[in-house]
Design brief:
Elements: H1 8-15, H2 27-61, H3 96-107
Length: 128
C-alpha cells in the first residue's frame, strides 16, 4: 500500500521535496513518504464516504425530500440484470465539501478532561 510502487519518479515530482530540501532523498525516505501519504488519503476518503452516507440518509429521511434518481436496468432478462446493464442504483461522487468536512473532523483532537472549566487552549494542525 504505497503511492510510490513503480511510480517513484512521478511521486518525487508530485511531492516537490526539492523545493524544501537541498539534498536528494534516498529511496527509503520516498517509500516512507509514499506510505504515509497513502494512509492519510485513505483515512480522509473513508471519513468523506461516511459523511456523504450520513448526509444522504439525512436528506432521504427529511419530510418532503425528493427521492434520488434511480438508474434503470438496460437488459430484459428473467432477473432484470444483463451483462451490459448498469448498476442497480445511481451513486453520486464525493464532493469537495465532503472531503473538507472529513479533513476538519480528523483534525479535531479530544480535549483533555482537566480543561473542563473552559478557557483558551492552544491548538495546532495535526497530520491525521
Amino acid at each position: 500500500a504505497s503511492f510510490t510502487f513503480r511510480k517513484n519518479k512521478r511521486f518525487r515530482e508530485w511531492a516537490n521535496m526539492t523545493a524544501f530540501l537541498d539534498t536528494k532523498l534516498n529511496d527509503e525516505i520516498i517509500d516512507i513518504l509514499g506510505f504515509l501519504t497513502f494512509e492519510m488519503v485513505s483515512k480522509i476518503t473513508e471519513m468523506a464516504l461516511c459523511i456523504k452516507r450520513d448526509l444522504d440518509k439525512a436528506a432521504s429521511a427529511a419530510p418532503g425530500a425528493a427521492d434520488p434518481p434511480k438508474r434503470q436496468h438496460g437488459g430484459n432478462t428473467s432477473e432484470g440484470i444483463s451483462l451490459f446493464s448498469g448498476p442497480p442504483t445511481a451513486r453520486t461522487p464525493l464532493e469537495v465539501q465532503h472531503v473538507q468536512e472529513a479533513f476538519r473532523r480528523l483534525q479535531r483532537t479530544p480535549q483533555p478532561i482537566r480543561n473542563f472549566k473552559g478557557g483558551l487552549t492552544r491548538t495546532r494542525m495535526s497530520l491525521i
